[in-house]
Predict the 3D structure of the following.
Amino acid sequence: MKEDEFKASELAVKAQVSRDGPPLVFIAWKPHVTGLFTDVKTLVKWVAWPAKTPTGEAFRDWLVQYGYERPGKKEVADTTKTII
């Protein structure tokens, strides 16, 4: 079982990749509450950390490796031509 962890002041999330059972499980902790998730979008909604804070941005950047696509952060391919 492979584990990866994100820690902040009042937030801790552990990602576990296993061979048996669900392929990816997130265990999230906020003060006095623990949650178990298999879906990244549900995890982000449950954490409810604002994206414009340093912790929220770092958390979402960490989730990109697990398939999370940040709204408004998609890379645009430069396929346009400039006509002068």
Remarks:
- The first strand starts at residue 2 and ends at 8.
- Residues 2-66 form one domain.
- The helical segments are 40-47, 54-63.
